Amino acid sequence: MDLQGLDTHQRQLVIDGFLDSLSSWDLIYLRRRMHVHESRIKLASLEDLPAEIIIYISQFLELEDQLACANVCRSWRAAWTFGAVTASLCCRYFSGLTEKYNLPHSQGQALFSEYARLYIDKYLRPRPNAYFSSRWFVGGNEALSFEDMREDVCHRTECLDFGLRTFQVCYDDGLLAWQPDEAFVVVSDLKTLTRSRCSFGASLVAGHKLDLQAVTRKLIVFSSIDLSAGSQACREIQIWNRNSDEWRRLSLPGRFAKCYAQDGAVVVVTSSGDAFYWSWGGSTVDLQATASALTAPPSECVPCLSKVPGAVFHPTEDGVFFLIWVYKPVPLDDRVHVIVVAKYKQGKPVQRYETTVANPARNSGLVHPYSDGILRFSLRCQKMNNHGLYMLGVGQSCLHYHGNKSPLAVSEWKLVCFNVLTETFVHRAYEKCLISPKYHRPTWDWAEWHQIQAWDDYLVVLWQPRSHVIHEPCTFSELLLATDNVACVASSQQAFGDTIRPRQLEPALTIDSFHQRRAGIANHVFMDDDLIVYAAPDSILVSTFRGAKNVALPPPMDGNPMASLASLPAPTRAEPPQPGPAWDCEAAQEPGGISEANDGFTILDMTVNIGRLPIRFRVSAPADQFTQKSGVPGAQAAPNTDGNMGINVLLHGDGGQSFFAYPNQGVKANLMGVAVLAPDEDLKWGSGDRNGVTRPNGAAHSAAVNELIQNVLPQVVAFNRSNVFFTGVSGGSLTLSGFFMPAFMGNYPNAGVLLSCGALEPQVRFDPQAAAALANTRIHLQSTFNELDFLQPLIPASLAAYEREARNQGLSDNQIGALQTVDNTPRGGHCAFDEQNFGSGVQLMADSFANIMLDGGNGLLGNAVNVLTPVVGNENPDFGKGSRR
């Protein structure tokens, strides 16, 4: 009986015919065989299924079920540990795990089982933690000796309380390094509960001030300031080897910005964006000298954060590391950032990766009409697990209801991550894992976050309310869980809401409850596979997973750990050494604060409300020119008093890039640099649609700027009100020429206005005083040959309008030509005055301000082009095809 090639119906007909041909004795024999199971009916079982089906089924199982399925029976174990299935599970749950141990995915079953059980024990079935608390105890004076931290309770006079002052603390793999004095650093090993010290008093005697910057199991890295040079700028790095007690020095060509360290290697970057790789026993590599197309900016993008990169290291390969840059597209859109990662091997770039991060688009729903809020993105390179995942940057987006700027607006956290083992990007979103009715998530209008740490699926954020909200210093913490975490059945918001929150999966390694119970200020929080470390002004609190490896668990505390902490001896109040001024990778993005300008003077960043408009501004000046009301250390001026210096007020272009880059910072030609941020959702002066020249809020914004200069700035800094200049960039130039100048220039006698890459003829009637002021107002319009097409016809109209008004005021052609000039010589695109790109072009214009605008200037843009062409007879510059580059 041949059944091959027949369909079901045909097979049944053949079988029926066969049965009809059998005798009664044959049928009885056949029935007997069926009854005694000599011929069994078999269906496909799990081991018979293709690997793709098992992989599909695994997507709907939780982590504990994955392990249980492999232990049902031998056949199931063979199916569940099949190479393709194991590879899928490793990549989905613990990406980079097999790469770390240089194993094929198909051979990673033992690793997967080990890490899965550890994750379950740590987060899904947490056991009670072990806690250890200690005061800040200085300890002995021997550099290579080790003391038992558990004996601190016996020392009363040597415990310190640093109060509200910040102090230097670094952490790596259980090592907590902190600097209580200008002559030494204390290193606490929280895994072995021992303490040692690194002393450098000899360097201080020799005139070098050392500030702690990074720590590893092998090295401690310090920035070094030469006090004898009379400058607070750091241009040297000193590195101490913890094992051999040896020192090394690394001189920098520019001002130190940031350093990153792992084991015996260090990457140092300067404030100008230069990066250097150094390793113990090796030579220093200037990474700028090895730059190539792999490290070039993306097309149509400008750098953020002054081009200063971050760095992460490969965990298993020496000499392999990655540099990270942040860019914004042109035309500038503050909602979009481009992240570029370049892989380096032996100091040379070998591979390049790109991704983008963006704010959610405007929600036009009728029920909840959110508007585009702010996307604050900061570069933060931190390790997130032990199998290759690093955080590259933190994005916090904030969506407000239209017309409502309350602190209850929707705020979302997103991390841009990169796995250096799989060399892939990971974008992670976070939500609160526990619903707390007591606290709402704050926005940066209400509070600012000053510390953020991520490990595995969890994110811990420390907030400090702004002074206008809560006057007493305090800290709020927020614990968040990734929406695509291991515990979720599927990476969806519904699964998160239905699975995570009802189960209240608060991890074992969290001290969120301690943050909310404790009074005072949290300075730092650190996380890794074994520990969470909470650093307060007077003590540290360590939470240890009881299943952690290579950790010396302290004796269990009785009762509440916070009560045990309170029972420790009272510390001595101490003033920590204040680190030298350092470049901050988030300072360009975060509102508020005091920092240092490139020339060493002080930058004050603050926000005020003017006519219901939030006006954020920056002013850079010598510390003694600020008023005591400003809060700047060293301020000596009284409010509403004139100073000897003038100001140069910059209005940025659409998107705010020039505000954050702050090209006019510092004091140049006796003018203090002031930059003002547009009070607009899209950071456009005068508001308006994309690429639009109509500025519906131009008059209101201009009035706010005038009020800022006339009544707010005199309260915080002393300046000469008869020496006020203005700089407009792109959209800022449109608002200056279209609204501010015809309305308010009468308030600024002998002023000057530099209009760069854009101008608009007056959109409001000339105020009589403003029109009369044109007789003494210096105006220069600087464009490029390939200016944007839609701006090209606006420039001649603006030139003609101001020339005409000056002539109406009785000025001769020679007088007008001396006051009003124009140029578009540079063969570049929009604002590319250096014929390179937007950002560097604007910086070149700011650096050339005195040459072009002030009496005695040589008229040179950079060192090449004289741009002082009288506007009379040159009202219609020749333009080429428009370009954004």
From TrEMBL:
<feature type="domain" description="F-box">
    <location>
        <begin position="49"/>
        <end position="89"/>
    </location>
</feature>
<protein>
    <recommendedName>
        <fullName>F-box domain-containing protein</fullName>
    </recommendedName>
</protein>
<dbReference type="InterPro" id="IPR001810">
    <property type="entry name" value="F-box_dom"/>
</dbReference>
<dbReference type="InterPro" id="IPR036047">
    <property type="entry name" value="F-box-like_dom_sf"/>
</dbReference>
<dbReference type="Pfam" id="PF12937">
    <property type="entry name" value="F-box-like"/>
</dbReference>
